[in-house]
Amino acid sequence: MPPNVVVSEEPVMCTNCAEIIQNSFEFKSTCLYTHNYIVPFVNEKENSKLDLREIYLCKKGTRRY
Ligand SMILES: [Zn+2]
User: Fold this and answer.
1) Distance from the CA of 38 to the center of ligand 1, in angstroms?
2) Whole-model pTM?
3) 13 C-alpha vs ligand 1 centroid, how far in Å?
4) 27 alpha carbon to ligand 1 midpoint, in Å?
5) What burial class does residue 3 get, using C-beta atoms within 10 Å of its C-beta: 0-12 exposed, 13-18 middle, 19+ buried?
């Protein structure tokens, strides 16, 4: 951790801020999960457009990509 990030030896946070950070973490985690799921479907050489409906159906197991 960079030294300028550490401003307190014993950091304290109120409940509201802790909930906001928790929600932010969950949002970011959801985005990363989706990102990591979609990346294998991307073919940069073909420069093709992704159809998220196809990926969704593939994820549900009703269609093979
Ligand atoms: Zn607060």
Assistant:
1) 35
2) 0.59
3) 6
4) 19
5) exposed
Q: How far is the CA of 5 from the centre of ligand 1 (A)?
A: 18
Question: What are the domain boundaries of the chain?
Answer: 13-60
Highest average pLDDT, of 2-6, 23-27, 34-38, 41-45, comes from 23-27
The residue-averaged pLDDT of 5-29 equals 91
Is residue 65 scored above 70 in pLDDT?
no
Range 42-51 contact pairs with CB under 8 angstroms and sequence separation of 24 or more:
none
To the nearest 10°, report the CA torsion of 22, 27, 30, 35.
Answer: -130
Distance 28 CA to ligand 1 centre (A): 20
In whole angstroms, how far apart are CA 23 and each of 12, 13, 20, 46?
18, 15, 5, 37
